[in-house]
Automatic annotation (TrEMBL):
This is Sigma 54-interacting transcriptional regulator. It comes from Clostridium aciditolerans. Residues 210-258 form the PAS domain. The lineage of its organism: Bacteria, Bacillati, Bacillota, Clostridia, Eubacteriales. The keyword Nucleotide-binding applies. PANTHER family: C4-DICARBOXYLATE TRANSPORT TRANSCRIPTIONAL REGULATORY PROTEIN DCTD, TRANSCRIPTIONAL REGULATORY PROTEIN.
Length: 687
């Protein structure tokens, strides 16, 4: 039940001021009734747990109407710091009058002001109605300027009086609400008020400071803190414990901890005087990690304290710490939206990669240098369940074997000369719950391949110089521009590791196999350099037929070069190809070479005729038209090439079989493919 307080004063304004001050500290824990001394309601009897009165004179007047069980507090008053500053600013030697509601109240306030250190002026207490000599002196009033509105001399309004800290403490003690003041930090609430009770103020300040520091320490901790006495009674229970365990502080303080929280090993600690460290228990459906220590001083047991943490919170904290260890640079920055291209080849790769992202299996990305293997790896990570964790990348070909091993697996202190004090976690540990990207995996030494295989199979690693296994939950994405299958045959790469990595293979197409993306990519990349250059038709043709050995990386370099030329139009002469390079070197993939070898065997010595048909189809492709068998027969006759319509039909069927041409039904004619155009150049170079 709420406590009831009655305030009895000489004026309603004073009662209102005290009421506001009390409510601001005790909030909803108290009910306040206000009375003026001349109120008729007082004679009906004052029913309250505590009565606050302004002076002893008031007490004598209301004594007959007070319930005998009611407590009494006579107010000690004070003023604001700003009010004291106004008084201190009065010229020295001034004969001033201090006006309050009556002479007794005025005398009391004069005493308060002198106690606060005022010595440079003479104060005389007066009240309304005393006008002898008032016109000739400085008058200090406490907010009631109406009493001196007809006086022409200097009036200084220092505002109404306030309850001193000692009175507030008395109210809290008598109403059993001191704990409310402790939480409020009464000294902080009174920072704008000066007090006459220096001793009490000092004690409150020191006590509040100590208790506040302890309270703040307990509250800022994310961990739950639970303290019990030697008898098992719960005395401390912070917000962290409230959030983790679920019980409210008001419901658990004072209860028996061994009964309310039986899963926490308080009983063992109190009986055996031994701590329990990091025990996993379950409370309210959550996995909780708890440590309990006995509180012993001078061989006497005072109680025990438990520190509780949610297991999931520990995992999250480890994740944040790993982020700090590896730095922000190891976050995956790119997604599938950053992969540019509208060709069927790149669209197919993106579609496959999106599906792979949903899996937890290892991925092996293959492709020539500059095709965007790490870009795809980051996009896969950012679309996987591990997106909120680390993406740790390392180039296996950029470090010597010993350094690569220590980077991957870490080391313990003293493992080798120059080892960091305290040791160092490896990238496997730092990538826990995330993705480990092993770029240029084909360059990894054979000795390390065995350790990598074990880590992938067992999902555990051991630091160099260590003696314990560390469990890791990672996904591995490998990437290489080498033919690992050939390396396996030649004994340069472990076969078991190859198949462990190649659970989900992803082959990226070279830029020359997605020529329809070249010009759109140039337009997008040039915007990054704020350039508006245009390419001539001839320059476009040369760029489209360039071998692009460096793929997208090479293309970006060329666009940056064009942007820095400062030209509005780029022609063939402006292209930065090396002099010894004509831009027409043909590089075939292994699959294309295999197709070409089979085609060569099936051509039965008719390469010249096949080449003739392919060249004519290319001419029609450039002219944006198609050729039928009869038209090809007519052209062959004009060029004295002996080909029958039946031979031409057979050649077209074979060209379509080997993906070099597309034959349309009816009068649709035939169309050369990009591979067919590449074969023309290859045959011209080799034949």
């Amino acid at each position: 039940m709420k406590k009831r307080l009655a305030i009895i004063s000489y004026s309603t304004s004073t009662a209102d001021t005290y009421n506001e001050q009390i409510i601001s500290l005790f909030s909803d824990n108290i009910i306040v009734d206000r009375f003026c001394i001349d109120s008729e309601y007082i004679k009906e009897g004052i029913q309250a747990d505590l009565i606050l009165i302004q002076s002893y004179n008031i007490f004598k007047l209301i004594k007959p109407y007070i319930n005998k069980r009611s407590e009494i507090v006579i107010a000690n008053r004070t003023i604001l710091k700003s009010s004291l500053e106004k008084i201190m600013a009065i010229p020295e030697g001034t004969q001033a009058l201090l006006m309050d509601e009556n002479v007794d109240m005025a005398s009391q306030m004069v005493s308060v002001i002198y106690q606060l250190g005022v010595r440079h002026i003479e104060l005389t207490p007066i009240c309304p109605g005393i006008n002898i000599g008032i016109e000739e002196k400085t008058v200090i009033v406490l907010g009631e300027t109406k009493y001196v509105s007809n006086i022409s001399n200097k009036v200084i309004d220092i505002g109404g009086s306030l309850l001193d800290v000692s009175t507030i403490m008395n109210i809290g003690a008598k109403l059993n609400l001191i704990h409310i003041l402790q939480r409020q930090n009464i000294r902080k609430s009174y920072k704008e008020i000066v007090t006459t009770d220096a001793g009490l103020s000092t004690i409150i300040g020191q006590t509040n400071r100590f208790e506040s520091e302890i309270d703040i320490l307990l509250q800022v901790l994310d961990d739950g803190i639970i303290g019990i006495t030697s008898k098992g009674i719960i005395t401390n229970y912070n917000e962290g414990a409230e959030n983790i365990i679920g019980y409210k502080k008001s419901d658990i303080i004072g209860k028996h901890g061994l009964h309310v929280l039986p899963d926490i090993p308080f009983k063992y600690v109190l009986e055996n005087l031994e701590p329990v460290k990091e025990k996993l228990i379950r409370i309210n459906g959550y996995d909780i990690v708890v440590s309990v220590d006995p509180i012993i001083h001078s061989n006497k047991l005072y109680g025990a304290v438990a520190i509780v943490k949610k297991f999931n919170d520990i995992e999250k904290k480890q994740h944040k710490l790993r982020e700090q260890l590896i730095g922000k640079g190891h976050r995956a920055k790119y997604g599938f939206e950053d992969i540019q291209g509208e060709s069927e080849a790149i669209k197919r790769c993106i579609d496959i990669a999106r599906r792979m992202a949903k899996s937890e299996s290892s991925i092996l990305i293959t492709g020539e240098s500059g095709t965007g293997k790490e870009l795809f790896a980051q996009a896969i990570h950012n679309n996987s369940k591990r997106r909120n964790y680390q993406f740790v990348a390392i180039n296996c070909g950029a470090l010597p074997e010993s350094l690569l091993e220590s980077e991957l697996f870490g080391y313990e202190e003293g493992a080798f000369t120059g080892a960091r004090k305290g040791g160092k976690p490896g990238l496997f540990e730092l990538a826990h719950n995330g993705t480990l990207f092993l770029d240029e995996i084909g360059e990894m030494p054979l000795n390390l391949q065995m350790r990598l295989l074990r880590a992938l199979q067992e999902r555990e690693v051991m630091r160099i110089g260590g003696d314990r296994l560390i469990n890791v939950n990672i996904r591995v994405i490998g990437a290489t521009n080498r033919n690992l299958k050939e390396m396996v045959k030649e004994g340069e790469f472990r076969e078991d590791l190859y198949y462990r990595l190649r659970v989900l293979p992803l082959k990226l197409p070279p830029l020359r196999d997605r020529k329809e993306d070249i010009l759109p990519l140039i337009d997008k990349i040039k915007k990054q350099f704020y350039s508006e250059f245009e390419l001539t038709q001839e320059a476009k043709e040369v760029l489209l037929n360039h071998n692009w050995k460096g793929n997208i990386r090479e293309l970006k370099n060329y666009v940056e070069y064009f942007a820095n030329l400062g030209l509005k139009q780029i022609d063939v002469i402006d292209l930065p190809f090396d002099n010894e390079e004509d831009g027409n070197d043909i590089i075939l993939t292994l699959n294309e070479k295999s197709i070409l070898d089979e085609f060569w065997e099936s051509s039965e010595g008719k390469i010249e005729k096949y080449l003739f048909i392919l060249e004519e189809l290319e001419k029609s492709y450039i002219n944006k038209s198609r050729l039928g068998r009869r038209t090809l027969y007519k052209i062959a006759t004009e060029h004295n090439v002996f080909l029958s319509e039946q031979e031409i039909r057979t050649i077209l069927i074979n060209l379509e079989k080997f993906s070099m041409a597309k034959v349309f039904v009816g009068r649709g004619g035939s169309l050369i493919t990009d591979f067919g155009r590449k074969v023309i150049k290859y045959l011209k170079e080799k034949y």
